[in-house]
Amino acid sequence: MSLNTSSSVFLDSVPSNTNRFQVNIINESHDNSAAVSDNTDPPHYEETSFGDEVQNRLRISFRPGNQECYDNFLQNGETTRTDTSFHAYDSHTNTYYLQTFGHNTMDAVPKIEYYRNTGSVSGPKVNRPSLLEIHEQLAKNVTVAPGSADRVANGDGMSSDEQAENKEEEDTSGVVKFGWVKGVLVRCMLNIWGVMLFIRLSWIVGEAGIGLGVIIIGLAVTVTAITGLSTSAIATNGYVRGGGAYYLISRSLGPEFGGSIGLIFAFANAVAVAMYVVGFAETVVDLLKESDSMMVDPTNDIRIIGSITVVILLGISVAGMEWEAKAQVILLIILLIAIANFFIGTVIPSNNEKQSRGFFNYQASIFAENFGPSFTKGEGFFSVFAIFFPAATGILAGANISGDLEDPQDAIPRGTMLAIFITTVAYLGVAICVASCVVRDATGSMNDTITSGINCNGSAACGLGYDFSRCQHEPCQYGLMNNFQVMSMVSGFGPLITAGIFSATLSSALASLVSAPKVFQALCKDNIFKGLQFFAKGYGRNNEPLRGYFLTFVIAMAFILIAELNVIAPIISNFFLASYALINFSCFHASYAKSPGWRPAYGIYNMWVSLFGAVLCCAVMFVINWWAAVITYVIELFLYIYVTYKKPDVNWGSSTQALSYVSALDNALELTTVEDHVKNFRPQCIVLTGAPMTRPALLDITHAFTKNSGLCICCEVFVGPRKLCVKEMNTGMAKKQAWLIKNKVKAFYAAVAADCFRDGVRSLLQASGLGRMKPNTLVIGYKKTWRKAPLTEIENYVGIIHDAFDFEIGVVIVRISQGFDISQVLQVQDELEKLERERLALEATIKDNDCEGASGGIRGLFKKAGKLNISKPTPKKDSSINSIQSMHVGEFNQKLVEASAQFKKKQGKGTIDVWWLFDDGGLTLLIPYILTLRKKWKDCKLRIYVGGKINRIEEEKIAMASLLSKFRIKFADIHIIGDINIKPNKESWKVFEEMTEPYRLHESCKDLPTAEKLKRESPWKITDTELEAVKEKSYRQVRLNELLQEHSRAANLIVLSLPVARKGSISDLLYMTWLEILTKNLPPVLLVRGNHKNVLTFYS
């Protein structure tokens, strides 16, 4: 839809249409009160006001017209259209609107730009307005950059992302891009047609015969065709960037496979340059031998010619892709002429010389004789196949320059598959034709003619007037099996075949010389191998990898100096086959993972065919050369392990990730069909850590008994206004989960926004988990500051314990002497880091100013500033909590930091004292047992404390030992405590009374009306009635602390049965007092209460 260019829509122009609205730019100093305000001209309506520093204002105003149009224009900050808003002749065929659809609203219309560079490590990304931006209320004051009003008024505003994209388009305006013919078809044909076509195909069909020869070609083509189909499927499943095979594999299977095979594939292409150049040099040396023009000796001549050739090829490549493409086209023309020259030669009547060398034109007898195999000593089907297969490789030559293609999604499938078809037809045609014209053995002597019709040895040559029977007893120089230059002999003009050999070798070398740096550059850009970032840099508009070109040149030169083709070829073929195998496996894996993101536009593929292709590639690797295959797999495995260990920070949405999800989903669903069994119980914990980094000790102790065995969810509740809480929660989710991953904590992070803390925890207790993987244990830190906390916090704290029991979830309360919350220390750390950054920035500024070529006075001024005594705090080595110890944050914070790291350390020889006072199903016993299995706690022994009768201590000790042995839980000692129920001493009881005193009501010493009034005013206080009713329980808590002080003061950890407060009977403050007196002045304590369902069993 185009904008109306009439004067009615230009800014500040008088409209001819009296009912139209328009956008005016008015100056900030304009007097708004001066606006015309009669009944026919409503006052100017300002939709948005800007900051004072903005000189212009954007105003939407109405010119004289219908008042109803003005009233209906804005509702809730959005434009609305009514039947009276526009003239009757307004329609979609006439452009009278101020802006086209999608430009007069923040809600974006579908655009391809929003889907580009998603998850990419490079390239600008255009972002659509977030849901928050279009969902939240419009801000009353919006600041607009000066000069932007005109663009906004006309709907021409451009976001920074759009500007970045336009800049990218401008930068790439001169880039050379290739279509499917020049970019893919030509390259693939040249790379597939190698020297084998001219000097080995005749020997292959001589050994295997036409029948098996066709099967050998068909088997090789099957491998490449399946790989081509898989490549096409992957290439059409989204936009393909530069990197060829590496890009396809890495984005499908992930950086581990992509990084390992990418390095191998780039190296293979670099060595392939040497292989093709050496093949070219060998042909030239043979010509020099024939003309007796050797320079030194055959080996050194190959080195000299190869070195000169690779330098020339490097010059063509560095000159740019456009020159390289032109050279490839010229080489293809020469190659096609050479192939046509061969077919023409087959129909030109042979002379006596050629007949003596075994060429008789097309003969049915020769076809029949050559149809079956005739393997010489040491040769067989697979050995001949191994020699031919390298002639079928090269199908990725087009994909390797995917970044230089106009439309890779169309060019790669079309060009690759057509190239495979054309080259296959050529191979089959040459093989059948040469085997129909030339006999297997010939002497080359014209004296071996015989009278036609005389029966000599029954061969086809006998019927054609030649007797080559002596070739059965002595070696001959001619024929399919003896002469590698058969195609040159058969052709119409022999030198053209030599030119074809030159063209085939040089074109393949040039294609490999271009492919290797392109693939290597893409690998280096992804920064999977940190030390290779140097080679990621590109030059010029085409982003040419000049550094990669010279590295490839060095590698190629090193292998050229070997000057032995048979040494280079085997490993190269295996490297290429490894790439083909992974491409096929990538296609299978992506299909098998059933990811919604796998929807290739090229539908002619099958996942099982791709899997067959991958297996076939692996088998062919061993057929060609088993030791080279082993070397390839060892190198690939090493690189895979290295990349896996380094864990590169990339996310490409690989099929490995998709399959992990499918596997996890299937397993979770399968778990739902399995009934719970006590033998399979494992602690699955919700840990109220808040932000995980603020309570590391609480997370560490929980992680110690859930790592690799149970679920651990770090939970945070955001309390406050819903809008602010949700925003804060959403912005921190990924960061906090990333912190867990970075610190190698196997846990999930979950958060909720709620009106109060208890409601949030209640939601987490009910909704967390998935299927059978639902939490069964709540882990919380002890509220150390409860006596200073507001009453609502205490009610919420005790309330979540009640809620957990209501949901039949066990509870673990962890107490350490210094508490868990280190958020203050983290704030100090952030401040110190901020100061350090400011100091470094100041030093950099001073240094820059000292280096400026300014006047002496100015330099002197900055030199004085440079002598300021800027303190340098100890640099931060890592982000762990331990690094804070070197900072001056006060003695208290130092102790807090040390306490927060106590569970990270290896616990020395000591004990874990388990006070299993009440049977909760065994959770109190299971958790410490799991701890003893961990590396950090394995030196700690279990000591079990249980209550009992004084007169039955030995019997109960034996009974408990028997029970523990049936549970298969090792222990160091068992203690039966027979004096738990005696009264505590007076000093301990006095401490308890002092704790409860501030919270007591003391209603018993008041008259009844006063007492009732006090209860109404302070229902949260501890009444005398309540205190008296649970006096025995209070005695028990105080007495237990005495016993803990006596027996377990030196323990590394105490695990103790958590007392349960009956709802409606025990007040929150009294319960907190119990917990306080119970765990006071002790080592780290775990108060544990299971859900009273068995978690231990002695049945097998």
TrEMBL record:
Subcellular localization(s) per the UniProt record: Cell membrane
Molecular function terms, GO-annotated: sodium:potassium:chloride symporter activity
Protein topology in the membrane: Multi-pass membrane protein
Limits of the SLC12A transporter C-terminal domain: 695-1100
Occurrences of domain Amino acid permease N-terminal (ranges): 90-157
Cited InterPro entries: AA-permease/SLC12A_dom, AA_permease_N, SLC12_C, Slc12a1, SLC12A1/SLC12A2, SLC12A_fam
Catalysis: reaction(s): K(+)(out) + 2 chloride(out) + Na(+)(out) = K(+)(in) + 2 chloride(in) + Na(+)(in)
Keywords in alphabetical order: Cell membrane, Chloride, Coiled coil, Glycoprotein, Ion transport, Membrane, Phosphoprotein, Potassium, Potassium transport, Sodium, Sodium transport, Symport, Transmembrane, Transmembrane helix, Transport
UniProt region (Disordered), positions on chain: 29-48, 147-170
Coiled-coil intervals: 825-852
GO cellular component terms attached to this protein's record: apical plasma membrane
Domain called Amino acid permease/ SLC12A: residue spans: 183-686
Residue spans of biased composition, Polar residues class: 29-40
GO BP term (any one): chloride ion homeostasis
Source species, domain of life: Eukaryota
Similarity comment: Belongs to the SLC12A transporter family.
Name the UniProt record assigns to this protein: Solute carrier family 12 member 1 isoform X3
Gene source species: Castor canadensis (American beaver)
